[in-house]
Amino acid sequence: MKTSIATVSISGTFAEKLAAIATAGFDGIEIFEQDFIASDFTPAEVGRMVRDHGLEITLFQPFRDFEGLPEPHRSRAFARAARKFDLMNQLGTDLVLVCSSVHPAAMGGIDRMAADFAELGDLAQSHGIRVGFEALAWGRHVNDHRDAWEVVRRADHQNIGLILDSFHTLGRKIDPDTIRRIPGDKIFFVQLADAPAIDMDLLYWSRHFRNMPGEGDLDVTGFMRAVLATGYSGPLSLEIFNDQFRAGLPRLVAQDGHRSLISLMDRVRRSEPTVPVALPEFPAAAPVERVEFIEFATSAEDAPGLEALLAATGFARAGSHVSKPVTLWRQGGVNVLVNTDSTGFAHTSFVAHGTTVSEVALMVPDAQATHARALALLARDHRQPGQPDELEIPAIRGVGGSILRLLDSGSDLARIWSVDFRSDAAALEGAGLTGIDHLGQTMAYDEMLSWALFYASIFDAKKAPMVDVADPDGLVRSQAVQSGGLRITLNGAEARRTLAGRFVEETFGASVQHIAFATVDIFATAARLAERDFPLLQIGENYYDDVEARFGLDPALVARMRAAKVLYDEDAGGQFFQLYSAPRPDGFFLEIVQRQGNYLGYGAPNAPFRIAAQKRYARPAGMPRL
Ligand SMILES: O=C(O)c1ccc(O)c(O)c1
Ligand SMILES: [Mg+2]
């Protein structure tokens, strides 16, 4: 699989873009003409820089407003083309993209356009250049790949072919299977982009909201299956116009791009096994069974505060690590580790973020297989030398630098609690918590798509639609990702004064901002928490009046909710109860939830009230209440 990415897809100077693209492992770049013009390099220098990075120029683009013009525009278009072909010869690339015309004078007419391309083909041939015709979704006469193909077919010239772009086909809801009838050798190039399902003007949508395959809602897999079914074997090139990416970190965006292509091709080969996919074999995505433990990195000084919160939540100290200063806290099936090591990764995490969730361990069907898959999808391996008689648990770095450990019940790893830990107490029932319902991870909004792609590509996972959550100081975007028993809510902070934004600032980067534990009886749990002085988040009276009216709830139930500060939501499948702790000074908090029936959400309608309540704690001393 030869991979490529358009220079418009990432931020930085031309030199920075090249470095990021090469580091991420691409084979080539599409040079977007504007990027070239804006640079200070001669065409020959650009060509050399690209090749010095081990890359090739897969495409030069775009050449606009060519076909179907009357004179004198037509002659001008040919003169322009001749100049660009000279430029391409100096750059050292042989393929140009002509996008369908939006020129006000363009006359259309399939045969007129085909004749123009046939003549352009002769000019191109004399320069050793090939021309690919792409239907822009908003093209004046050609805005559908089927019409672009008909023009190319009638031009009948070996230097004239078709360029497909998933956005233009899928954005117009054209059935991608219509590609299957095009001969693969006439498809000169394939551009890939996804996009979120937003109903808006096609041009604006395309130029600002495209994202990496798998990050949006278009059926890029179906598109790619159809492309490969034709026998096409040329480059797969990302062409992502996205405002966020243009302002983002070039290396992160480039790496996400490469990951998205690997993940896409893996989905294609598993859903269409008969098409050849040039990608090394690696294990299939598997669902996560459960979160086996969560580890906090802290210090000897800060640990008592964290442990007091755990005790108030019904956890009891149940053991310690055989060789490291790590204590095990347990209740029901939930394991929490508190690591006060003053060396190693946990310490680095603590120094960087303060007390923080530094590791999450997942139980999967086959830990080594998931680990191999994650590495194939460009995750970073994590190894920290342990004692010889301890387990070597496979691990990878998460996007923000925390660690994901992988365990399974079919190998030696199942013995983690008896090999690596000495337990000194039986598990207590505590406050009735039975598991980890979900983890809330908070990050800068720019990084949110990266995280979603990371989880959704490595695990067999589903993404829920993104929702906007109103914080009194700005919007937070939230997206849930679920893989079997692992549920993660990603919260992207756009505004710095939001609860999420402050957490990112306070803790210096993205991390777990809250842990939601599951219970089967939230009122019984609430009563036990009250006995333990759990720092319960106080919810305003107005909320209960509203929720009773909104859902027509039994006043007796609402009275219990009001007393226990329990929030409520429901969907078509069932009911949901939740309560929260007050936030710690850095903004970290706990949640306890009870799902009834098949409720699928996370109580998003309650988030504005919960956030407002939490912010009352965060107000600096002496600030007036508004
Ligand atoms: O938005 C555009 O004009 C534009 C240009 C070139 C392309 O390949 C494309 O897909 C869109
Ligand atoms: Mg395109």
Automatic annotation (TrEMBL):
Q: Which residues form the VOC domain?
A: 435-582
Q: What class of enzyme is it?
A: lyase
The record's EC number reads: 4.2.1.118
Which residues are the signal sequence here? none
- Report if keyword ATP-binding is assigned: no
Q: Where does Mg(2+) bind?
A: H438, H514, E591
Q: Which keywords does this chain's UniProt record carry?
A: Isomerase, Lyase, Metal-binding, Plasmid
Residues that hold a divalent metal cation according to the record:
E134, D165, Q191, E239
- Record GO biological process: 3,4-dihydroxybenzoate biosynthetic process
The prosthetic group or cofactor this protein requires is:
a divalent metal cation
Identify the pathway: Aromatic compound metabolism; 3,4-dihydroxybenzoate biosynthesis
- Name a Pfam family for this protein: Glyoxalase_5
Q: Which reaction does it catalyse?
A: 3-dehydroshikimate = 3,4-dihydroxybenzoate + H2O
Q: What GO molecular function annotations does the UniProt record carry, in alphabetical order?
A: 3-dehydroshikimate dehydratase activity; isomerase activity; metal ion binding
* HAMAP family recorded: DSD
Family (UniProt):
Belongs to the bacterial two-domain DSD family.
Check the record and name the PANTHER family matching this protein: HYDROXYPYRUVATE ISOMERASE (PTHR12110), XYLOSE ISOMERASE-LIKE TIM BARREL DOMAIN-CONTAINING PROTEIN (PTHR12110:SF21)
Q: What does this protein do?
A: Catalyzes the conversion of 3-dehydroshikimate to protocatechuate (3,4-dihydroxybenzoate), a common intermediate of quinate and shikimate degradation pathways.
What's the name of the protein?
Answer: 3-dehydroshikimate dehydratase
Lineage, highest ranks first = Bacteria, Pseudomonadati, Pseudomonadota, Alphaproteobacteria, Rhodobacterales
